[in-house]
Amino acid sequence: MKDGAEFARPDFSRKERTGAPEVVFCQGKTPEQIASIMVRLSRETEENIFGTRATHKDHDAVVAVLPQAMYHEEARIIAVPGKRPAKKEGAVAVLTAGTADIPVGEEAAVTAELLGNRVTRIYDVGVAGIHRLLDCIDEIKEHHVIIAVAGMEGALPSVVAGMVDVPVIAVPTSVGYGANFDGLSALLTMINGCASGVGVVNIDNGYGAACLADKITGMIGKQKTDEIDIEIDV
Amino acid sequence: MKDGAEFARPDFSRKERTGAPEVVFCQGKTPEQIASIMVRLSRETEENIFGTRATHKDHDAVVAVLPQAMYHEEARIIAVPGKRPAKKEGAVAVLTAGTADIPVGEEAAVTAELLGNRVTRIYDVGVAGIHRLLDCIDEIKEHHVIIAVAGMEGALPSVVAGMVDVPVIAVPTSVGYGANFDGLSALLTMINGCASGVGVVNIDNGYGAACLADKITGMIGKQKTDEIDIEIDV
Amino acid sequence: MKDGAEFARPDFSRKERTGAPEVVFCQGKTPEQIASIMVRLSRETEENIFGTRATHKDHDAVVAVLPQAMYHEEARIIAVPGKRPAKKEGAVAVLTAGTADIPVGEEAAVTAELLGNRVTRIYDVGVAGIHRLLDCIDEIKEHHVIIAVAGMEGALPSVVAGMVDVPVIAVPTSVGYGANFDGLSALLTMINGCASGVGVVNIDNGYGAACLADKITGMIGKQKTDEIDIEIDV
Amino acid sequence: MKDGAEFARPDFSRKERTGAPEVVFCQGKTPEQIASIMVRLSRETEENIFGTRATHKDHDAVVAVLPQAMYHEEARIIAVPGKRPAKKEGAVAVLTAGTADIPVGEEAAVTAELLGNRVTRIYDVGVAGIHRLLDCIDEIKEHHVIIAVAGMEGALPSVVAGMVDVPVIAVPTSVGYGANFDGLSALLTMINGCASGVGVVNIDNGYGAACLADKITGMIGKQKTDEIDIEIDV
Amino acid sequence: MKDGAEFARPDFSRKERTGAPEVVFCQGKTPEQIASIMVRLSRETEENIFGTRATHKDHDAVVAVLPQAMYHEEARIIAVPGKRPAKKEGAVAVLTAGTADIPVGEEAAVTAELLGNRVTRIYDVGVAGIHRLLDCIDEIKEHHVIIAVAGMEGALPSVVAGMVDVPVIAVPTSVGYGANFDGLSALLTMINGCASGVGVVNIDNGYGAACLADKITGMIGKQKTDEIDIEIDV
Amino acid sequence: MKDGAEFARPDFSRKERTGAPEVVFCQGKTPEQIASIMVRLSRETEENIFGTRATHKDHDAVVAVLPQAMYHEEARIIAVPGKRPAKKEGAVAVLTAGTADIPVGEEAAVTAELLGNRVTRIYDVGVAGIHRLLDCIDEIKEHHVIIAVAGMEGALPSVVAGMVDVPVIAVPTSVGYGANFDGLSALLTMINGCASGVGVVNIDNGYGAACLADKITGMIGKQKTDEIDIEIDV
Amino acid sequence: MKDGAEFARPDFSRKERTGAPEVVFCQGKTPEQIASIMVRLSRETEENIFGTRATHKDHDAVVAVLPQAMYHEEARIIAVPGKRPAKKEGAVAVLTAGTADIPVGEEAAVTAELLGNRVTRIYDVGVAGIHRLLDCIDEIKEHHVIIAVAGMEGALPSVVAGMVDVPVIAVPTSVGYGANFDGLSALLTMINGCASGVGVVNIDNGYGAACLADKITGMIGKQKTDEIDIEIDV
Amino acid sequence: MKDGAEFARPDFSRKERTGAPEVVFCQGKTPEQIASIMVRLSRETEENIFGTRATHKDHDAVVAVLPQAMYHEEARIIAVPGKRPAKKEGAVAVLTAGTADIPVGEEAAVTAELLGNRVTRIYDVGVAGIHRLLDCIDEIKEHHVIIAVAGMEGALPSVVAGMVDVPVIAVPTSVGYGANFDGLSALLTMINGCASGVGVVNIDNGYGAACLADKITGMIGKQKTDEIDIEIDV
Question: What value of ipTM does the predicted structure carry?
Fold first, then answer.
């Protein structure tokens, strides 16, 4: 019987197919499995490769075989720099409501940077002291996409989306206690937000928010519709 | 076997005991039961008596026996004016996030008025267009208590509480659809709010919010602690 | 006491502030309130104005005062054509998993069109007969944004996102029965999807999906980051 | 990249704006972050500063830089005495249903004291042995606000509110097991309570209850409405 | 294919086996099915037969074939008197918290009577006005079993059980609104009650409460353990 | 400030009032608090005193001050024998569905014994191998009350109640995994059981089941109703 | 814009691909849509075609264009007989716990028959009167697959699976009230069942159960593994 | 008092009765209990015996008394080879969506092998990279039963079932985070799947899936219906 690591089928064509590289979700894998997969990825691609939800111990295993692997502690990301991806000229603002939301914010920020975006971090601007947000709103508006990270009542994305004309990606976090039910409260708030132009990702999923942001900033250089040949016979 | 109406035990001593009059919760009672209870209450007290969650049909039954009974349609309240209660000099601001929240806002506003407070209605100031709220904030601050009513993501009370120095009473509503789960979303948001000084009542419970507001405005004339003799041997 | 309709504060500056026009959410408002608000909106803007979750009865009330108002039955949208907004050259594909999801798909499609996008409808391509989706995938890929609408198990957005390099907006619907719990099942599936590049909106919220899509297609003409002056002192 | 602690934006104007000082929620922050924030707060204010949900280890870090910092073990609060805030003359009774609810009760009691109130602790008076509550009820009534803390079935606030004429703040706790679902049971009980004059805060949120109580006792010296100039053009 | 009614297998030996007669749960059955089953039951037994959750229409169908069938409107029970079961000498007190809980209380009371118990109805004694309960407590104590019916916060059974030395059967009701979630709130309260000696039945299940009460009052004449020969080889 | 232990108000009159002695719920209390409370109880009563949910460490603390204290490991009960309570002649059968349910079964069995009942343990008779239950059913029937303990699908009480004529007390356990949601599954099964004569207690609450059983076996010597003077003026 | 009906993509190759014919889920479709789809299906296949969750009104629309269409009222199925599918020689037993579960049982039974199986209906054999089930168990065992349909506590499949050596398909129903939460209770029971050999389908999904049963009876004529050439390079 | 282990009633007749051997669920049992039960089983049967959810420590205890006991680490299964059961000629494909689902896949695969089936493992073929699944689909189709294991959004079984003509057993896993709610998300997805021919088992229940698969492959040699004598008088 082969061991589990052998069964992993890294998705080498993903980049070509979806524009997104294969990224390792480390949680639930052993350090050895992680190291083994990252080595295989590093042979297949010239881009940055990285793993999320990684521990120091995971990093130790990876750095033993890929010495250039760095560890972003707060973001919990192991990154192995590839031949730097072409700058996409996208500007992403990552906002957090509180300081406890920063690890998720960092997962989003570091991921967005690794995917080739310019990132501005604007942390601790939750709505319970709304002047903090209002003070930054003009600069926030100058970005292409806004990632708004919030736990507890999770109202930040809704308030922000009411003030800007760009897409807002809402990331609920499990920060809080009691009736936050590990992030369910913030998730429901964001899904029910009345401001338009908001897309929600999973609780604590900074990585997913950054991927979506990257696909959106990928629009900047896109062809206009007039030049596209769309013919679908429904 | 006696019929259900006969079993009702109107709580005539409630006013004396708790400072709050007995109020009829009409939903789930027949028009006849409602009329019968209100007649009995009107004999016992000289204050305003009223019933909440009442329909036109309920009002028809009451007005047949108590001709002075009025019906506040949007608030769904039947009110029978008593010897007007002494003005308590309390000022209550009732805010709603959207127009669909107004019936609950009205239940709160009319109840607070019937209990002897001065009420200012400030409706449709939800956080997705926060300038609407900011435009009113100075006036809002001049009230003794603020009742903030909101459905969907329910972020209004939290944002307001971050800007004022008086108590905020949060009323989640069942307004919304999909993942609002009939108000659960707004309730969780409010319970998890990070601004301090907020107390939450049941979904759509405008009446309860007004009762709490009234107990708070009842503090204005209270004796100072220094003059109180508190001795509890724990 | 003023009636609720009078309290509505249509958000005339929203377009300028957020790039999105004020749209009327008709559900929970009376036909009269809807007509009154749309008349006021029509005086303030030269763009398309419209209302979602509208009934035939709502349309009757609106058409009485705004004769050019049209009713999109399946989408449940009342639209009053304004001076047509400038074409944004965005191409949006709206997919539904089943035929019962079409009303939500239509809400998304009609909204996207009213906001100035070119829309392709690709309906009934759910994953339980995946060849239907595979047959269309090449054409789907040619759009700027994909809106994937699905009830029941809600797996469509995840499968699609694994095959394209553009943003996917996931719309869970309440279609299904039993343990779908009115759309909760599809919502959870989409929030937990493992494909990256997906943002989720509320259950049955075709309107919200189209607004987000429109903000994303609005990126096409955006300035590159290098030319933006972002300076935030964190 | 700056570390998270640097991103924290202590809300120095909160006191002026909301009447409530900035308080540190220690859970989820490192001892170093807590100490750093408290030092900065101590430079900005002459009032008591404090942190909740703090451990002994957190206290060790704070006392190293602020030697006067005390630790209230049961309340899990680190307090640094400032120039004592002016006595507000408010009297707060803190009740708990059981002995296991005492830590939450203490968080409420110590917070209320730090904010300048006189506090009476009345613990272990749950409704399953109601004579214990009845024995104290006369003294309880002499306070301005009552904080009722209860886990399991959480019936205490409702029973108390039926016997007093002052506001009751209900604090559900996570005390219990099985179908208490970490406090959900007590939360629902309190939100559904039929006694009026009750506001609910988050599960185990003794701090929040005390803040609300303090805002209510802050009413005692307030101006009467007649003297207030409220003019809002709705 | 036989029709559904034909498939019903009335459990004629249930009385002998479990001490409880077969009772028809009418909800979800057609009036014809109900009438047909009751006729068959009436041929098999000389005891009272009855059906719960019955409508007037159901009764019409039954009385057409069993003219002696009576309808207890508030209890929603159709009863066909049999040869009266031997008096069991059991005394059951049925308490309700509010007037809206009376239909469930009546279902319990009428069922208990039909099973041969003496029933005392004590309605509208909820804990928010606890003096009402205290006034009756001495009489309540004189019964063999207490059925406590309550919706909303559902605290009645817990308070009662703390004052009596007999078994208490707790019946949550769906009475309430908002966060009562159709009775879930009261159910959780009762399941988490800290008073001992309480058994809980399903939401609105007055019938089930009465059956359990009847089995308990059936203990009165039981043999003492010393005379029982129990030998189980585990 | 007094420490929490001092605030405990052991309910010395409970026995007299409710027939049930004060029992210590050890979970969430320190060994010192437990020992201190048990000493106080031992001074007040001549009956057995005991504490549930106790650890070996708790027992160590108790035995240091009350040397006769025993520890029932599987039941997690510390018992201090008093002057043995008069035998009540009640016979209780404790059934468990699986072997993993035995600790809860033991909590019920030991408690029932300490309260003065004769207990028969019949373990591992779950319905998935129903012949095991059928083999014992005749002996089971000879008891006055049956406590049926089950996790996972929790069907045991319903099946048992369909075969006996005595009260069945259903105890859901948290045994299982996945969609058992820590006992919610078994709780719902039992609450929805269609067999009559079943009362449900909290998840894993063996103690509560035994208390209810004891109140029921306490019926055996009760006076008949005819001799009781019940007069309640409703 | 084409209407929704036109967008439907009947899955004509499904039979070939999956062995299952395309079946119309009528709920949520208009009678016209249903009729239109069934006509198209009838042109493509020579097998039985049918639609589930159909009303009389739906049948009226279908029979107008396909006169041979029959309506199975209790099963809510419209069936248009095709060239009868080859008999598969499979024997399916459909059990229901109660009479109210029969409509779901009939949906399963009629579907299984339309797919070419021999079906035995054994209704009203719920576990609360287990002798009813025991009386039939020998005959039940003689079938190839057993479909066990149950609402409320949903224990039937588990008990049956413990007595037979063939696959059991468990169908939870929404039958019940209160804490059955529209079938969630029965679903959880069945998913947590401890008997092995059980697969669960959606609440009220008699159709899905029959499809699974049909795939299982389709095994009877299958080739043995030894003759299969399976080579997968993992 | 006997200890718990003694109370276990291994179900020695299960094999004969249900075709499935008694298997030990090790979780929640002590190593000693496990070893003791397996020894007893080994004396009663000549088939493979095994225990699931076992740890290394459990295995240590078993191997001390049954030296031939093997430990399948990833599957967490202790297996004691018996006289090899007759080959049933069944072919089972076990699929997992991701690598983190492999432990559950292994529990299914090893169990199916121990029960006498030929198993093909096809891991890491989740729908977010659907080409991986499409590449294997022809080989997958050649099996008699497919077990599809997936966490997160759990869409694999539905997609697979739309492409094959054999039964699919869906196993949700607790793999994921945030709104996966420990597997609830995947469970709901699978229960709501629109492809027919799918039966669902409990979260992480690889063992149960294999048992069901084994009962299905047991059909291969079954008699045809025509030769069965089924006579049930309903």
Answer: 0.90
